[in-house]
Amino acid sequence: MRSFIFFDLGQTLIDEWSFVAYFDDLLFKTLNGYGARIDRINYIALRNNLIQDRKFGTFGFLELVSLMSKLTLPRGYESTINCILKEDLLHKKRELIKLFDEVPKIIPFLSKKYSLGIISNNSSGSANLLKRFGLDKYFEVVCLSESIGFRKPDHKIFREALASTNSPIDKCIMVGDRLDIDIMPANELGMKTIRAMNSLYKIQRPNNEKEVPLFTINSLAELPEILSNIP
Questions:
Q1: What pTM value is reported for the model?
Q2: Under the phi-then-psi rule, with left for phi > 0, alpha for psi from -120 to 50, and beta for the rest, what region is 191?
Q3: Is pLDDT at 11 greater than 90 in this prediction?
Q4: Domain chopping of the chain, boundaries
């Protein structure tokens, strides 16, 4: 029986680094424009602390806008800044994200030996990148939070995906970049886990054994060799 590999989208299959750079520059300038008086070094330190401490939850970069605003400005500014930046960030994200360079080659290659799926909190807009490259046909199961109604790390979105396979759970593998919403719930359910490190979340450290992945990779190009070592 073929193993089933599930992928996260953002910062796993999708390269968001250009958008991260744009986001940080825009938010940094906006916060200071409203009187935050925070230098870039402290901005990055504060942002990284939010990621490491699991304060940055499941709703993406817009949640980080609110958190950073609350920590650097008087109360109430977070809603104003969120409204100001929301449309710009959504537009720029669609414009700046791309697939990691190795994805168009690695996905067809893996599909020859494994069944493939997606479990992601990203929107269908991000998933459309796969269609643009003709890669959507390789994914037998696609579970997006906007369609399912549940967001990772809720086990329900994972169970929805797993129910669509004919593979036993110990033959299912989750590849994702976040310890808190990808690795931990997959481990709790009995899946095998692989952490992708080419991500903003690479600074996370496991808080407990449930957050420890079976393997760690720096690039998806390492997957074939890693997968060959998983029984």
A1: 0.94
A2: beta
A3: yes
A4: 4-15+98-228, 17-96
Q: Which residues pair with 116 in a beta bridge?
A: 5, 139
Enclosing H/E stretch for 7: strand 4-7
Q: Tell me, which fold does domain 4-15+98-228 have in CATH?
A: Rossmann fold (3.40.50)
Structure token pair of residue 159: 């169970």
Number of H helices, E strands in the chain: 10, 8
Asked whether residue 124 carries a pLDDT value surpassing 70, the answer given is no
Tokens of 28: 């940094």
Give Cα 101 distance to the centre of its chain.
17
What sections of the chain are H helices per DSSP?
Answer: 17-33, 40-52, 61-72, 77-96, 103-111, 124-132, 145-148, 155-163, 184-189, 223-228
> Distance (Å, rounded) from C-alpha 97 to C-alpha 17?
8
